[in-house]
Structure formats: C-alpha cells, structure tokens
Amino acid sequence: MTASQDIPLDSPLRTHPKRDLPPSLASTYQHGHISGHPRSPGVQRAFETRKANILRTMTPEQIETAYQETVKKITAVLEEDRKKNEEIDREAEKLTKQREMERGIFRKMKEDLGKKGAKEDSMDVKEEGEA
Known about the structure:
The protein is mostly helical. 67% of the residues lie in helices and 0% in strands. The protein is elongated, with a radius of gyration of 32 Å. The mean pLDDT is 77.
C-alpha cells in the first residue's frame, strides 16, 4: 500500500493495538506498522534479528527500563514541539492582530484622504464659480 492507500485510523480493520498508544492507533496486522500495512520481508527479518539479539543480551527489566527511557525521550521531544507550536501560534496571532490594526489605519487614512480630496474639489468649484 502507498500513502494514498493507507487504511484510515478509524477503520474497523485496525484490531491490533500498539503498546502505550491509544486504541485509535491500532494496526491491521499483529506485527504491522501503525500506517496499517505489514512490514516488508526484509524489514521483518531485520526486526526479528534485532529482537532476538535484545532478548539474548538483556533481561526483561532492562528491556522495560530501556523502553521507558525511550518513551520519556520521545515524550520530551513531543512536549518541546508542542511548546514551540504554541509559541508559533501566539506569534502568528500577534502578527495577524497587528496586520488588522495596520489595515484599519490604512483604511482610515484612505477615507480621510478621500474626504480631503472631495473638500478640495468642492472648494475649487466654489472658487471658480465666484470668479
């Protein structure tokens, strides 16, 4: 499947939940990606080799500790990104307000110039009529 053919997150085909992720991010395959399609044979072999190596060299407690550390790192990165996004949103809102204020001032200046121009035109007409 390509990105345009990914299975929607709310599809009933997604029945395999992923560890520490909400049920809405389930996969359609037990050992599949969250994107909804299975791993390629090469990727699956590499995954199984790495998993076997980890299980051979680490105790379950060490694996859980390493997993929790990775989760903490990812959570920290996500929190940092969330804060940056909020900062960007605040800056964008500030600039939008500033632009609206500038537009209001420009509109007022344009109206004032239009009124002055109309007054000057009417004064020119009066002066010509008086002469």
